[in-house]
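Try this one yourself first.
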């Protein structure tokens, strides 16, 4: 599953600098994630999404979370993409309180390639796993 996010959203990552390489602003641009760690060391990366995150299920229904946090590490000083594990809170589904969990190694991979309007691809669960939405107070199936 791929979700488009504004390249600006990539800046939410503390301790990582998003630097543009070449290309004018009106065309597609490639960015690198940079880590200022000493050689042989890694960077601990954390971030927070400041806009609600909306899921659309395979049945077309939507769930939303007000808060999304991200955590991960960078092992190279410069990377083309960045893989982080999300956490979700203050979620709801169809107006009811819900929990959202990532399972089985599900991560989000933020790419450094943006299109002409600044959107970048985010690959959700690219290596497997899933996201589970549980509605609280709903009757058991």
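Now uncover the answer:
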């Amino acid at each position: 599953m791929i979700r488009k996010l504004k390249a600006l959203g990539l800046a939410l990552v503390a301790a990582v600098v998003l630097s543009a390489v070449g290309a004018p602003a009106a065309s597609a641009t490639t960015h690198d994630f940079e880590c200022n760690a000493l050689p042989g060391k890694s960077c601990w990366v954390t971030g927070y999404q400041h806009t609600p995150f909306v899921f659309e299920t395979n049945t077309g229904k939507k769930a939303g979370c007000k808060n999304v946090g991200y955590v991960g590490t960078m092992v190279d000083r410069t990377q083309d993409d960045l893989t982080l594990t999300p956490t979700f809170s203050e979620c709801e589904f169809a107006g009811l309180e819900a929990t959202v969990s990532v399972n089985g190694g599900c991560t989000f991979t933020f790419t450094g390639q943006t299109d002409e309007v600044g959107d970048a691809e985010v690959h959700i669960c690219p290596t497997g796993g899933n996201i589970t939405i549980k509605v609280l107070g709903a009757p058991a199936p």
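Discussion: Confidence is low (pLDDT under 50) at residues 1-26. Residues 2-135 form one domain.
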